[in-house]
């Protein structure tokens, strides 16, 4: 052909095992420190690398060209889909392949796309605009979701901390129901001492996992974090109220519950399930004040906690507890990154010193009756949260406590179910009125705690898939809508989102 030069053959890299790229426009606003350095440029406009650490920069995961390529490869109706689906991808003839990258960070890994996805970047579907074969939307949504899905890793110490907290919550309710039935032991006197430990630790863990959620638009925050909890609160308060109305008396009170409680569950929160009602309210409040300086947020909520802790503010309902514990949720949102950096440095003697200090302060507060002094309960609760974090960091490194971590991934199921066996046990004790020795009064709350947790886990295992029981009945209620510019041509099917606190499908609420 005269003096023409075949640039494709001339500038083909000699080492075919190393990736070859097209020159791609930089729309990411610059290269982050963890992205690889650009390779050398050939006269034909190709990039290639002569060293594994000198890889050229690929498209960002949300680049429109990459999304079009993935969508076209996922839909069989396109030419690239027909070529790359049934018979497999064609032989790559030296053309440069784009790379997909799993985010910008120290663990980012370039992943070559298929040859069909490469060819599809510049080809148009044969079905015409706005038309796709059956099932194309689902395949396209799955392909795009695979590019955008975040690789979340559960943090062991957080699950262990929630496991410790849920055991203490179940033990608290066990002692409370048995005491109402007339079974009083030494644990009944110790139960109030742990008020500064259980729920502050729970709310602090929830706040750590809520830091990213409050950056969402309120509509997305409501769907992905608040709606599920509000739905479960209504359903399980109704179930618990029905059971209390049916069973015999469980205490000396004239009635276990009133039908009116179903109408006032948002005004007068349920005394057992108020936590999953408080979380959506805390999410909404944190979203409203998210632009305030963190110091102002923590200071104002600390004043509120001091007011409720000293009984200067008092309603006689779970609103008092919400006012006391809001500060831990707000503080965890801003202190979470710092706590995460410090946890790997925690050693066993840190946990021991924190535990001894918390025990000494608690004894002094009880002996001198300082619980109503402003900020005393708040300071004691801060020590308790420190104890919970340090102990969880140490226990999380021991394989012998994996069972505690597993409990921390099922706290929502345990929290919703655990009171039902306690209600039935209390009803039997009140009806039969058996004589119980002091030793039985000590052991019975512990046995009831173990039985309640085991029953809750069994119910979740065999009935967890029942629609509407442990999750919303329609999955699309809690799915986040994809931005319009990221939606593929054939439609969009978004993947199921993690549980409200970002900790995965483990239903991790207490």
UniProtKB/TrEMBL annotation:
Q: Which family does it belong to?
A: Belongs to the acyltransferase 3 family.
Query: Which cellular compartments is it found in?
Result: Cell membrane
Does the entry feature the keyword Cell membrane, yes or no?
yes
Q: Which UniProt keywords apply?
A: Cell membrane, Membrane, Transmembrane, Transmembrane helix
Ranges of Low complexity composition bias in the record: 76-88, 127-137, 500-510
Give the residue spans that cross the bilayer: 160-178, 198-222, 229-251, 271-289, 296-316, 322-339, 351-370, 376-400, 412-433, 439-460
**Stated name of the protein:** Acyltransferase 3 domain-containing protein
**Which species expresses this protein natively?**
Cryobacterium arcticum
The primary site where this protein sits is membrane
Q: Which GO terms describe its cellular component?
A: plasma membrane
Q: Does the keyword Acetylation apply?
A: no
Identify a single GO molecular function assigned to this protein: O-acetyltransferase activity
Q: Which residues form the Acyltransferase domain?
A: 156-457
Question: Biological process GO terms, please?
Answer: enterobacterial common antigen biosynthetic process
Q: How does it sit in the membrane?
A: Multi-pass membrane protein
Region entry Disordered: which residue ranges?
1-137, 487-510
Name the residue ranges with Basic and acidic residues bias: 20-36, 51-62
Q: What is the lineage of its organism?
A: Bacteria, Bacillati, Actinomycetota, Actinomycetes, Micrococcales
